[in-house]
Amino acid sequence: MVLKVNEIFTSLQGESSFAGLPCLFIRLTGCNLRCGWCDTKYAYDEGRDYSGMELVGLINDSNIKLVEFTGGEPLLQKEELIRIIGDVDQEKTILIETNGSISLEGLPERVLTIADYKLKGSGEGGSFLEKNMGFLRKKDEIKFVLKDFSDYNEMRECYMKYDLGSKCGVLVSKIWNAELSDGEIAEAILKDRLNVRYQIQLHKYIWKDEKGR
């Protein structure tokens, strides 16, 4: 049982309802998408193999209670990841951040999923696997990253179509060089009465583009 891992580091969780909490990040190697503003292109191919025993020991020995598997795209190594999670201390909270293009079916009940719905502005619009909407639970979160108002409108349409406000947590943020401001997005959310959490990328606010943060 082996996972190819790009990097392992401790930081503050930068996004989601867990933002601000210390988190052990395990970034897996490989991604099936090529988003226009990806800031972890180094994870496409770089990495080394870790045995399941090695990873589980590292996680269980850490005093950090929040653990996130990210990428790249962690579900490209889904079967191995599921087996490893099964051996992780039950006191740990496990997050999986995925691009939503691979089925969420079969993930352990204890896992909290953060699914990134790729909008057209990312260059990977239409990649979200529609049946994944049926696998999202109340404790899970779906994330929308906006480039412009076209992306905002697409997010709103998706929100309404799937009644996301009552299905799971909904996260909205923007890219750093977006064509709309935080204030404009906030006003639009309030005007449209969307039950979403607007967020900034806390880790970028603190550390900019420093690797391993």
- The oligomeric state of the chains shown is single chain
Mean residue pLDDT: 94
The CATH architecture can be given as Alpha-Beta Barrel
The CATH class: Alpha Beta
Question: Fraction of residues in helices?
Answer: 10-25%
Give the terminus-to-terminus CA distance: 27 Å
Radius of gyration: 17 Å
Widest sheet: strand order?
3-1-2-4-5-6-7-8-9
Number of domains: 1
Major beta sheet summary = 9 strands, mixed
Tally of contiguous helical segments: 6
Number of E-type strands: 9
CATH topology: TIM Barrel
Low-confidence stretches: none
Question: Beta-sheet strand percentage?
Answer: 15-25%
Secondary-structure blueprint:
Layout lengths: L1 E11 L9 E7 L19 E4 H10 L4 E5 L7 H8 L7 E6 L13 E6 L23 E6 L2 H13 L2 H4 L1 E6 L7 H11 L4 E2 L3 H6 L6
Helix pairs in contact: 1-2
Tell me what you see in this structure.
It contains 6 helices and 9 strands; from the N terminus they run E-E-E-H-E-H-E-E-E-H-H-E-H-E-H. With 213 residues, it is of the alpha/beta class. It has a single domain, classed as Aldolase class I (TIM Barrel), CATH 3.20.20. The protein has a 9-stranded mixed beta sheet. Strand 8, helix 5 and strand 9 form a beta-alpha-beta unit.
